[in-house]
Every structure is written in C-alpha cells, then in structure tokens.
Specification:
Layout: E1 16-22, E2 25-30, E3 35-39, H1 42-56
Antiparallel strand pairs: 1-2, 2-3
Length: 63
C-alpha cells in the first residue's frame, strides 16, 4: 500500500508555514514537530522540511 492509498483517518496531518527570511533564503517550519527546513527557494525549504518530517514521524504498517 502506498502513502497516497492509506485511508485519510490513518494519515497524520502536520501544520506548517513558510516564509522568506532574506535574499535567497526561505524557511519552512512544522508547528507540530518543531522542525525546520531551509533553502534558497520556497520549494527547497518545503522539500527539506518534508524530508525531516518523514524522518521523525511514526511509521505506519501501511508504508
């Protein structure tokens, strides 16, 4: 079973926000796990946060 096919009630939802922190620097923060991603673009910051989130989030048997 892939991550996208896991029923909604079994998925974890995390809140995050992202912002421009200076010239060529973006920050994405997860409010629920106290994690941060950083990058030169908004997409890079979100991708880094996504990687860090999956590294610490509990794994389900459906992955």
């Amino acid at each position: 079973m892939t991550r996208n096919s896991v029923p909604h009630y079994q998925r974890d939802t995390f809140r995050f926000y992202a912002y421009k922190a200076g010239e060529g620097r973006y920050i994405a923060r997860c409010l629920d796990l106290l994690l941060m991603g950083e990058g030169q673009t908004l997409e890079e910051a979100i991708a880094e946060l996504n990687d860090r989130t999956y590294a610490v989030a509990p794994k389900t048997s459906h992955e």
